[in-house]
Amino acid sequence: MSKSYSQFKAMLAVAKAGLIAIFRSPSAVAFSFAFPLIFILVFGFLGSGGRISIRAAFDPGTDTTNYLYGIIKTIPGLRIIEKPEVEIKEDLEKGRLTAVIAIQKNKNASPAYFINLKSSEAVNPQNLQVLRSILESIIKNIDHQKYPDAPTVAVINNHIEKIPGRTYRTIDFILPGQLGFSLLSAGVFGVAFLFFSLRQTLVLKRFFATPISRTFIVLGEGLSRVTFQLITSVVILLVGYYFFHFTLIHGWITFIELLVLSFIGLVVFMSLGFVVSGIAKNESAIPPLANIVTLPQFLLAGTFFPIDNFPAWLQPFCKILPLTHLNDAMRNVAFEGAHLTDCGKQLGILAIWAVVGYALAVKAFKWE
């Protein structure tokens, strides 16, 4: 009596064959392992102890009617952040802001103003010194131009109030972005080229001659892609953690949660790969179509720079991209100490992208 055909075992066999094929592909290994690691190594060596930029905010009690306030806001290289007080405090604790500047009018005659700085232990001391030098230069220029014979217009308090905080390294921003882009590239380029090649070489037709169903063919190939990319994620996270002190705030729990996010992100991005595979009329059409999907996200989804660095009119577009929300969720989990249950907004938007992506994929995907 013959045994019944096992779709599950057939799916595992397809997945195993697909995984072996991926590892034998130099381009797949290069895009998934080499390129992200090169970026991480470069930014890790250049910025292992540094911060992203000189960013500051004004204290809510600051006298905004004085000319010092107006001049400080227009200084090139000094970015003044305007946010609610709670968010300013949070950014300061995490080293995203160099300091909070408070300008207070002196009740006595001289000097006219006192400038107080509040910083945190997470801030690079060099950035704090640069900010202080900028403020001192402003005061000297005003004294020289407007009041050459009068006492100084303002004095910076020598005591800088520092609140506790964790060091926020460049790698804490760069690594999640690179991991996210690696997942996006694998999901779009990998899936698009894979299924177009299987269709063109008639491998899918040969599969149809076997008892395995179409659903399990797709699941098997998808499983091989997911397995390979999760291995990539593990390597990237371990290199970042052991060589460049990438923050995993809750240790192994954070590590596992980042892998879960990697899996979710890859599933979403694979839907876009299926769409590209179905739309492409020939193999040469895949790269431009895939780049239309990936390039805007690579540049605008906060991979290298915070989204708030972009013009205000561009930021709404940045905030609807799926890679933006995957990057945000990864950074929140790795450094902020959030858990997956705290990333409802990001996971919800990724879920919407998954529904839309797979709905389009079903319509566009071709078997032959």
Using brief descriptors, characterize the structure shown:
368 residues; alpha/beta; 6-stranded mixed β-sheet; 13 helices; 62% helix
Give a description of the structure.
This protein is of the alpha/beta class. The chain is 62% helix and 7% strand. Strands 1, 2, 3, 4, 5 and 6 form a six-stranded mixed sheet that branches. β3 (99-105) and β4 form a beta hairpin. α9 packs antiparallel against α12. It is elongated and about 95 Å long. The two termini are 35 Å apart. Residues 46-52 have low confidence and may be disordered.
Summarize the structure.
It is built from 13 helices and six strands. The protein has 368 residues and is an alpha/beta fold. The relative contact order is 0.12.
The number of helices is 13
How far the N terminus sits from the C terminus, by CA atoms, comes to 35 Å
Mean model confidence by pLDDT: 81
What is the 3D form? Answer: elongated
Oligomer type: single chain
Order of helices and strands: HHEHEHEEHEEHHHHHHHH
Helical content band: 55-70%
DSSP strand (E) fraction? 5-15%
Q: Characterize the biggest β-sheet.
A: 6 strands, mixed
Q: Which ranges are low-confidence, i.e. pLDDT below 50, for 5 or more consecutive residues?
A: 46-52
What is the count of β-strands? 6
Rg value: 26 Å
- Alpha-beta classification: alpha/beta
